Amino acid sequence: MRVFPRAGRRTRITALTLLGCLPGLAAALALVLYDPGADRPVAIHLAAPAPASPATRYRAPRPHIVPRSAWLDASVRRTQPPPRYDDQVVAVFVHHTDSPNGYSCAQTPEIIRRLYTGQTGDRAWDDIGYNFLVDRCGTIYEGRAGGADRAVTGAHTQGFNHRTAGIAALGTFTAGVPVPRAMTDAIAAVAAWKLGLADVDPRGTARLVSSNGLSRYREGTTVALPAVAGHQDGYRTNCPGAALSDRLPEIRETAARLQGRGALPGTPLRTLMETPPATALGPPAKAPTGTP
Predict the structure, then answer these.
(1) Phi-psi region at 220: left, alpha or beta (left = phi > 0; alpha = psi -120 to 50)
(2) Bridge partners (DSSP) listed for residue 29
(3) Which of 1, 56, 140, 217 could form a cystine bridge with 221, CB 3.0-4.6 A?
């Protein structure tokens, strides 16, 4: 996706390449998120869940999520089939949209709308692929239809769309590009909430089955992937970019704290900050030709 600035003080979206990058704490933890209409910080205090039964001990609070109606209007909405669902979400895949970073957060609804138009038009998909999108100000938007609270089957990671959620960071985060703290905190908040519903530790791994031989693994292969994974963990791509990939350990730790989890017993801090490797329980697929 591409957004080109117009000369002058105000930035306006003029064109887009619409393919994107696709196929307890005892006290409250304060995350610095942002107002969607202004590029300034707003302190959002997300309280850690109160002690409860073992089944709900590690559930994180639901962050504020802007509904689809904020970016999708009748002028671009397409007829689509009913959404599909899985039983639960046991992993999330983090993406970037491979679009410019210098946008105003007031432009986010238009950026998502154009991304939706490209995927449902140029690619002939039935809906936007990502379940959630996060802008540079830390505002979280509902993406794919079906209900943010439900385990909606997405279209974000070839071979691993079942029992996962796709979270897209609006921008391009290749090596050396700063990743806004508000953005990573918001990604962590979504991951903590969605994974907590299935009692999944964001620092752990999830067993997933590849449903497509175009993924990194042959169709039918069971793989142990990070519970908070980058797109590249399941598909041969550079997404979500080296800079955002480097922030995944921090995102995992923040998500775990939001769930009320302490440090893993006997685990050195150095190990906590390392990315859990993918473990294939079957032969890896042969690399596809071309660049995704």
Answers:
(1) left
(2) 46
(3) 217
